[in-house]
Amino acid sequence: MTTKLDFWQVTDDPVEKVVTLIAKRAVGQGERVLVVSADAEQRASISRALWQAGPSESFLANGEADSPGADRQPILLSAEPAAANGASHLILADGTFRDVPGFARVFLLFPPDLAPAARTAWRAQDGREGVERAYFAQEEGRWVKKG
């Protein structure tokens, strides 16, 4: 299985908005998503953004990993990268890279101050079998693939 590993340097939008953008696209394609952040406040903020993602018919249902029914959630929020919901997509929202096998797509969202750690994680993937990397940056409000 090939894992697509995307590095997204977040400079213009809040992380919550970027998570919502990625999650909406993934869920729209029938995928399940795991959003990981060690920061409970950030997870709560992301959850609110997902619930308010659009008109009432297009909100993005989500829940915390330690809540009842977590396995049924299309979008699961957790401090740990364990996909109780069977997620194929992993969003690392707190800027900390975790090498977690078993996901079809992994998104590392990081602010400019965490760019050195992201570069280290990027280099660690050099030559790894089954990993395709891409780097995205924000330019004038749009996401542009840089590498």
Q: Largest beta sheet, briefly? A: 8 strands, mixed
Overall geometric form: globular
CATH architectural label: 3-Layer(aba) Sandwich
Q: How many distinct helices?
A: 3
Mean pLDDT: 93
CATH class division: Alpha Beta
Q: Predict the CATH topology.
A: Rossmann fold
Low-confidence stretches: none
Describe the strand arrangement of the main beta sheet, using strand numbers. Answer: 3-4-2-5-6-1-7-8
The value of Rg in angstroms is 14 Å
| Number of strand segments | 8
Report the CATH superfamily: DNA polymerase III subunit chi
What is the H-and-E element order?
EHEHEEEEHEE
Helicity level, as a percent range? Answer: 10-25%
Structural class: alpha/beta
Write down the domain tally: 1
N-C termini distance? 21 Å
Overview of this protein structure:
By secondary structure, the protein is of the alpha/beta class. The protein has a single domain, classed as Rossmann fold, CATH 3.40.50. The protein contains 3 helices and 8 strands. An 8-stranded mixed sheet has the order 3-4-2-5-6-1-7-8, sandwiched between helices. A hairpin with a 2-residue loop joins strand 7 and strand 8. The mean pLDDT is 93.
Question: Would you kindly provide a brief summary of this structure?
Answer:
With 147 residues, the chain is an alpha/beta fold.
Keyword list:
24% helix; eight-stranded mixed beta sheet; globular; Rossmann fold; alpha/beta; single chain; 27% strand; 147 residues
